[in-house]
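Reading a protein record of the kind used here takes only a little practice. Think of the row as the fold of the chain written in a discrete alphabet. With that in mind, consider the following protein and its fold in token form:
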Amino acid sequence: MAALPGPHAFLFVLNPTTRITEEELKMLNSVREIFGTASINHTIIIFTHSDSLDAHGITIQEHLAQFESNHPLNKLLDQCGHRYLAVNNRATNTEKTATVRALLDIVAQMVANNNGQVYINANFEAAAKFSGKYTSENQDYS
């Protein structure tokens, strides 16, 4: 129930060192079907394995710049407002803490850009109403 009244962000996790697969694209389309097309306004791309890029002397920005503008990854980044974060899989605890802070900053900025609104649709509204009714009914028995 922690997501009620709705999630602040949808995180779409990809490995930038491998090709984006048809299954990954289908997964994103499934999210849109379930949560609605507005869910993309609340989506952040998480790129794992940035340490692999670092080992080759490439930043995530340089890596992404290699793709054509019509590449599925660039289309995805365009759709979600270029909100992304690179994660070092071999990070130290200090680096992990900094990465979490960076993610929370991206989420806060995204929520601000969405007029302070978390993601909500009819399904979430119905769940919130049910949750409130269920909670108040259970409190009557305590």
Remarks:
- The chain has six helices and three strands.
- Residues 10-140 form a domain with the Rossmann fold fold (CATH 3.40.50.300).
